Amino acid sequence: MNLTRQLARLGRGVLGAVAATGRVALFAADTVSHALRPPFYGREFLLAVLQIGWLSLPVVGLTALFTGAALALQIYAGGARFNAESVVPSIVAIGMTRELGPVLGGLMVAARVASSIAAELGTMKVTEQIDALVTLSTNPMKYLAVPRVVAATLTVPVLVAVGDSIGIMGGWLVGVNRLGFNSATYLRNTAEFLEAWDVGSGLIKGAVFGFIVAVMGCYHGMHSGRGAMGVGAATKSAVVGASVLILAANYLLTEVFFSA
Can you give the pTM of this predicted structure? Predict the structure, then answer.
């Protein structure tokens, strides 16, 4: 009987997880479907671009700067064991553009944006503002979810590109001022080893991560429970869900892009 109860509990957990995944997938598909059909709310889209893109730039830039600087130190310390200190510029550039820039940028945006969207939409649901939109014949998906999802999908790759540049600059600053590299040689090695696909793959990852962040924020916000506890739970679930999905999607995309 004990084993039966344990198996039943495990089964309920697995079925609940599968059902939740299905609900999120249907919500994402519904959002994409609405994004392809009018009407479009340009003002809401521009506000979302400002809030998601421009206001996230400081935290993404600082994260990339210190990550690039620390990466240069670590690669130099590891390369010194094999007399391979000269690989610092190329590894910093490749590491930032392929992995660290998109992933850390996506996680920072998830922490800032997914929580903000979930809290905003959750509060709107609790105060019945979403119901008021329906009363006014305005589709909440089109007015609330679509502008945020489209804005995040378009702006996060831009944030990733800026973060990549700042991260490489951080590695350059440490390499030249701390590790004794010649500035011209460092920049030349960076340019020679960095390929267009290294940057392009990171930008594609950024678009996927932006989509994930906005979808998770909108989904949990629009399905928030009642009261302050419901909004708090929705905010927490949005950040945790977006972060886990970003890491999982990063592995899958890396497998597709670089498995050969």
Answer: 0.91
